[in-house]
Design a protein that fits this description.
- The protein is an alpha/beta fold.
- The chain has two domains: 5-115, Cobalt-precorrin-4 Transmethylase, domain 1 (3-Layer(aba) Sandwich); 120-265, Methyltransferase, Cobalt-precorrin-4 Transmethylase, Domain 2.
- It has eight helices and 14 strands.
- It has helices at residues 21-28, 41-44, 67-79, 98-107, 120-128, 176-185, 232-236, 238-244; strands spanning 5-10, 32-35, 52-55, 58-59, 62-63, 83-88, 111-115, 140-145, 165-170, 193-198, 206-211, 225-229, 257-260, 263-265.
- It has a seven-stranded mixed beta sheet. The protein has a five-stranded parallel beta sheet with strand order 3-2-6-1-7, with helices on both faces. Strands 4-5 form a two-stranded antiparallel ribbon.
- Helix 3 packs across helix 4.
- The longest helix has 13 residues, at 67-79.
- The radius of gyration is 20 Å and the shape is elongated.
- The termini are far apart.
Length: 267
């Protein structure tokens, strides 16, 4: 029997048209697919009927399968000579635990290949038409996680964020007041614009624009969400930000505008 192989594949942010050609090719030749909860039905539809599909994702913090079991399944199926795909939302190496799986498969002496995917930060930037970097506004981009591997522990952020930078917070969670405090403590101005994007690139995509000082008053949008923070928002969403100050008052003196599916209106 020929040796098996593991593919760590990024499924992209949700829109099936953002799946890479190579990812689609790998899926069509898979024998076993271990997929995340949020991978779209259209992408799962590319998997051949003969292949075994296993949902190993989690939703709302409820784990279906432990990381240890996922690692075991990757190795066991590959040792049987099968083509095994670990299908992950976004990119497998951007807060996707792909590094842990890569190390485990390598230690077992199994061939492995990584197929990158469009990460959520890029999809959110496209959805809001915000350039994550801009020669005149932002010369750096920092990606941070809002939640840690251990729920009781805080993720490690820089003590000070550079002044001309764009920050993207993956998995910001529901405690936006805490996220705002951490941003302020790291030197981010309270007047800095930010946007929460829910379901970037999907049909249920929603956006909410505010400022760091009023982030705690933002509505709770459905997961998966991420937070984009930086002056680039004034460039990419100038029309939105100009309209939000004539929309309506919210607690704290901020006037905000929520957007759903590209249309303006209050949540």
């Amino acid at each position: 029997m020929d040796g098996g192989k593991v593919f760590l594949v990024g499924a992209g942010p949700g829109d099936p048209e953002l799946l890479t050609l190579k990812a689609a090719k790998v899926l069509r030749s898979a024998d076993v697919v271990l997929h995340d909860e949020l991978v779209s039905a259209e992408i799962l539809g590319l998997i051949p009927r003969r292949a075994r599909m296993v949902n190993v994702g989690k939703r709302c913090g409820q784990k279906r399968t432990t990381q240890e079991e996922i690692n075991r399944l990757l190795v066991v199926h590959a040792l049987l000579g099968l083509q095994v795909v670990r299908l992950k939302g976004g990119d497998p190496f951007i807060f996707g635990r792909g590094g842990e799986e890569l190390e485990h498969v390598r230690r077992a002496g199994i061939a492995v290949e990584v197929v990158p995917g469009v990460t959520a930060a890029l999809a959110a930037a496209a959805a809001t038409q915000v350039p994550l970097t801009h020669r005149d506004i932002s010369s750096s981009l920092i990606l941070v996680a809002g939640r840690s591997k251990q729920p009781a522990q805080r993720t490690s952020w820089p003590d000070r964020f550079p002044r001309n930078t764009t920050i993207v917070v993956y998995m910001p969670g529901s405690d936006l007041a805490d996220i705002a405090r951490r941003l302020l403590a790291s030197g981010v101005s309270g007047e800095t614009p930010c946007a929460i994007i829910s379901g970037a690139s999907s049909e249920t995509e929603r956006k909410h624009v505010t400022m760091v000082r009023n982030l705690e008053f933002a509505p709770q949008l459905p997961a998966p969400t991420l937070l984009v923070v930086g002056e680039v928002l004034r460039c990419g969403m100038a029309d939105v930000i100009s309209r939000q100050f004539s929309a309506f008052d919210l607690p704290g003196g901020d006037r905000e505008l929520s957007l759903e599916s590209g249309k303006s209106g209050a949540e």
